[in-house]
What does this fold into?
Amino acid sequence: MANETILLIEDEKNIAELVKYNLEQDGFRVLTAAKGTTGLESALKDKPALVVLDLMLPEMSGLDVCKALKQNDKTRTIPIIMLTAKGTESDKIVGLELGADDYMTKPFSPRELVARVKAVLRRAKDRPKVEMMRAGTLELDLTKHELRLKEKPVELTAKEFELLKTLMEASGRVLSREFLLERVWGYDNSVNIETRTVDMHIGQLRKKLGKESPRIVTVKSVGYRFDGE
Ligand code: CA
It folds into this structure.
């Protein structure tokens, strides 16, 4: 556990120093960045074991940094703990939706943060490499890129497969249409594409899921959730 590198992206100097000190006390190597842009560069270059990421940063927000880290294959698996100012509900949801592993609301105890860092690192190590996702009679085989219902293969388009995989990975959490567009189709906010595209593909996917189709739940005026239970 010792000497693992933690990247701390935080513009408030005293918080950064306090967190750095506490992490170093526990044997971590700590890199710091005061801006989202430099933090992102450091993550790509230094490959930290974990990123502690402040939400409110100059030039590039913590959410954008999080998004960029999760979209890059080189940094995708690095766990992220977000620091939020007042814990506004939407920031938390967006942060977790974008793939942050945990978050802490300021003001927080540095010792508590160190404990969270250790817990998240432990979880990341124990995380088995997922090759198959199951729910009821539905099996999504990530190795073969195949959907099976009651062991019978069902043909999916590449987008339908990605859509189902994204929903199943986030099982139990609501994903917005915008998020799905971005994740599955790779569109960002600059592309003015209709979110109806998502609805259309969900419709097709539901047809193919047959009896398991109620697992894709429509969450009114938000998006969709996969019900894995
Ligand atoms: Ca800040």
The chain has eight helices and twelve strands. The radius of gyration is 19 Å.
